[in-house]
Amino acid sequence: MKLHLLRYFAVLAEELHFGRAAERLAITQPPLSSGIKALEDELGVKLFERTSKHVSLTPAGTAYLVEVRVVLDRVDRAGDLARAVAAGLRGRLEIGFTGSMVYRDMPAIVRAFGERAPGIEVNLREMSSGEQIDALLHRQLHAGFLNADTVPDHLASLPLAPDHFVCCLPEDHAMAQQACVDLRALAGETFVMFSREVAPANHDNVIALFYRAGIHPHTRHAARQWLTVVALVSMRIGVALVPASMAQAAVKGVRFVPIAGLQHPTVGVLAWHEDAVTPALRTFLDMASVGTG
């Protein structure tokens, strides 16, 4: 059954006049008449009683109209959905993030995106940077907020807003109330480190800070998340260098103190597979580029 015949029927059922129905359909009366006859022949029932002066629905036509309106409404909604998906306004996105990204750009970008494209469902999945990269390469994520400064071939990335490292000290530490801390003064401390296995870039950036300060501190207690690092410091397990944004976690028992003479940025990018950009992801990336610009 051809869809245009259902539209012919629905319009004629509303107008009950071939001339007005043909005008609404932007066709002439002969194809409308032949179309209605073809529909009746296919169904094997009479849908209209018609004379030279009068057109009315038969009982079968009245019942058929109810179902035809449902079909046409679903077809219209399907078309609207297809156009919305093609325009990047409907769909679903799987977005990865590391725990520390909760305190950086990610929440603001996701909220702004939700306001701009409420028809797109965003599913956030907490994963390590390494897990995200693997999932992106295998196209199991659409995008990921991860701790890295470079990404593998086939992945593209957008740098996040700048952040930098600070010293995280127990609140009763002798240097916790200072305006800034010289790393060399902490050379004898035990440092809580980020696990290199989970995010090499996080670990290597902290080591780079020690190298620039000319010290070789005692390091141990490798953690898998920055929040865990801060929590261990609050328990007086050691001291740490962490992103300044971690102060937003409001962990009790710690102080975040600037590092004297050093402004070392922390790494962070939004990454995606360059060959797997859907319309919904393009809309998300457009929003992210505004939020991080």
UniProtKB/TrEMBL annotation:
One of its GO terms (molecular function) is DNA binding. Belongs to the LysR transcriptional regulatory family. Gene3D superfamilies: Periplasmic binding protein-like II (3.40.190.10), Winged helix-like DNA-binding domain superfamily/Winged helix DNA-binding domain (1.10.10.10). Residues 1-58 form the HTH lysR-type domain. Keywords: DNA-binding, Transcription, Transcription regulation. This is DNA-binding transcriptional LysR family regulator. It comes from the Bacteria.
